[in-house]
């Protein structure tokens, strides 16, 4: 049987394309990757008016078939049938913003020239009317010569009509592109033609001062704007910790219950130890960050959907320009506070290669959520929870200091990289600022569900495997009586080798042992230190002495501080290294990134340790 | 090349909320990708523009309206766009 016809959804950025995609396919979506690039492939299923199923492909938004970034290149290649692993679409749906016809029709004209069957979705029709713009869709259809359907994706209006018109244009049989679809390459010619058509389709237009202008009067204000941005960031980071407390408790409860259930089922022995201490405890230690990651992403997705994110980039451009980047880099860097992996993937919207590479190289310096458990464990053990200023606790202040250290380190690194290895012409900053809109809960929930899925898959694969491997390395070979199991184990011997290198910066054997598994993901360090102390404690009095007390008795304050600074800089995350390799097409840049970050971590931790010892904190 | 008439000012020299019509664009002052993206954003002679947020003391980007779109531009790009201000 033939596969279902493939329909590509194409349009300018900010045309409401993803909202239309979500409205048409609902939860029947699949997020994958195009081979060779990390541009996400969003596909979904829908049934046409006549019942035929089609596969709908949501292509990255672009202004023309002349790409200026990797994600725009995917759109062009799919539409020209040149994308590896993708069929030439059987039809395209062009999404245009009804309130911005002049501009969006130019791309539509380019697409019409391809000769594929197509339907134009005249989207956000209601917003155009609210802006005082009365359009005649039939006139537009006559001018363009292709079907035009007014839609309001967020209110699910016009969807049935769209499916009907789509059913009419899709016919069985092979597709070919029109010969010489090169179209008039001169953008200006197309642009002027687009303006004529837009004028012909406009019934009347009254000037209305839009909401967007009123909000921008504050959001882009030289003083009020940065204050608002800082306030939003503050609320966001507060929420990540404050709102996650309860759900983290539930997950911990669930994991403890799972451990008990499994423990009761499996007889004592190595399998019991593997499942309960290894798998459930290890994976559980990571899954507890899901609430924090989701809260952070909820903020980021909301800021993006509302149109504010580009304003934040606007405000940050001056600062970013001073280190050789642009405001556009702010968006992936902000995502990196949740996790560097989606952050690095989000750099694909940056047009300039050197600019993009620099952003990738500094993204791991943003304090990702995997560092917080490490910070929390060590800060909790060594810094009393006392107020230093009204509303400011000492522990929070230390954590904030580590966050700022990471940001300053990233800015300094960008400054140096842009003058050395990623030297090049400074890229510009030119971005369309979309109209403000209310984020749609459905789009937000779909986005969060996709993030959660990606995170849980990671926890279920990489972290599961490393946890099992660490457990095995720590448990074998069995130490003879009177010898420490940890020291005798394979991991203990590897740890001793690492210890030689890290002893000068104040790291003891426990830390050396934790550094290796923490390469899989930073948060594993917490679980690893817990496992080391548990396996090293054959009497099993772990219940009496908490990890906090063990740390206090075995680590000096200088060691603790050095350990924290190490985690600010060290590239301890296999996923980040892997995504960097994929994004930069080779091992050169991930190798460089790992090298420079380890050097920074070693120097930073060393300076911290030696200074602390000199101050008598050793 | 014709010198811009005195009534033409660079976009970034318009007063805040000042509007005008693009008279000419100094495409040679821009890099090729900059020029292309600017065209893609709908900038062309005869298009109405408005300066919404000037560059400020620190020399940050400007926010302007090009046709029906709001666009962020670096100062040197806005400086290459010559505008005939509309009265009022």
Automatic annotation (TrEMBL), chain A:
Q: What transmembrane ranges does the database entry give? A: 219-244, 264-287, 329-347, 359-383, 395-417, 459-476, 555-579, 591-612
Task: Tell me the keywords, alphabetical order.
Answer: Membrane, Transmembrane, Transmembrane helix
Instruction: Quote the Gene3D superfamilies the UniProt record gives.
Output: P-loop containing nucleotide triphosphate hydrolases
- Record's keyword annotation contains Transmembrane: yes
The record's listing under Pfam families reads: FeoB_C, FeoB_N, Gate
Where does the FeoB-type G domain lie? 4-172
Q: What is this protein called?
A: Ferrous iron transport protein B
Automatic annotation (TrEMBL), chain B:
- Keyword Magnesium assigned to the entry: answer is no
Residue limits of the Ferrous iron transporter FeoA-like domain?
9-85
Q: Which domain of life is it from?
A: Bacteria
Q: Does the keyword Iron apply?
A: yes
Q: Name one Pfam family in it.
A: FeoA
- Please name the InterPro entries in this protein's record: Fe-transptr_FeoA-like, FeoA_core_dom, Transcriptional_repressor_C
Which keywords appear in this protein's UniProt record, sorted alphabetically?
Iron
Name listed for the protein in its UniProt record: FeoA family protein
